[in-house]
Design goal:
Blueprint: E1 4-8, E2 14-21, E3 25-31, E4 34-40, E5 48-55, E6 59-60, H1 64-71, E7 83-93, E8 98-107, E9 110-125, E10 131-142, E11 161-175
Antiparallel strand pairs: 1-4, 1-11, 2-3, 2-11, 3-6, 4-5, 5-7, 7-8, 8-9, 9-10, 10-11
Pfam families: YceI (PF04264)
Domain Lipid/polyisoprenoid-binding YceI-like: 5-174
Protein name: Polyisoprenoid-binding protein YceI
Length: 176
């Protein structure tokens, strides 16, 4: 069987997340520098291996002070852990365009399994003749599983930062 390699089109992809702030609103953020590859055995994304890395110092939430705090040892500790990595372990079809993507996520030197819901958006040729493929990924992780433990108690009860991180990822690949 022929292996087809795909690389990320970063101008048409986004690695985003949301986390509760003060227990009642969400703060959104994203990573601006990342790489991803996919390898298919059949060209149809039914049997696919995915790999992903993001530069932790590329995080942005739209607030300079918050971003500086996220880069510190309280959270991502970018001096010691410059990358987040994901390597798939399985990609299983659920329905026509819905899949389950499982893999190992490494963050702050800790590797744990994660499960993401994947929607395959299909393939098409762009106006320049390049074959493209699109995916939407969603999932949830608990930040404390990777040692991101910092928090602050609120006077009215609760905490400043939620533990659950909602992932919202849009990927567009280009056939190599």
């Amino acid at each position: 069987m022929t292996t087809t390699k795909w690389s990320i089109d970063p101008t048409h992809s986004e690695i985003g997340f949301k986390v509760k702030h003060m227990m009642f609103t969400n703060v959104s953020g994203k990573f601006e520098k990342f790489e991803a590859t996919a390898e298919t055995e059949d060209g149809f994304f039914t049997n696919t291996n995915f790999e992903f890395t993001a530069e932790t110092n590329s995080i942005t939430t739209g607030n300079v002070d918050r971003d500086k705090h996220l880069l510190s040892a309280d959270f991502f500790d970018v001096e010691n852990y410059p990358e987040i990595r994901f390597k798939s372990t399985s990609y299983s079809k659920i329905s026509e365009s819905n899949y389950t993507l499982k893999g190992d996520l490494t963050l702050r030197g800790i590797t744990k399994p994660v499960r993401l819901d994947a929607e395959f958006h299909g393939t098409a040729n762009d106006p320049w003749g390049n074959k493209k493929a699109g995916f939407g990924l969603t999932g949830k992780i608990n930040r404390k599983d990777w040692g991101l433990n910092w928090n602050s108690a609120l006077e009215a009860g609760g905490v400043l930062v939620g533990e659950e991180i909602k992932l919202n990822i849009e990927l567009q690949f280009i056939k190599a």
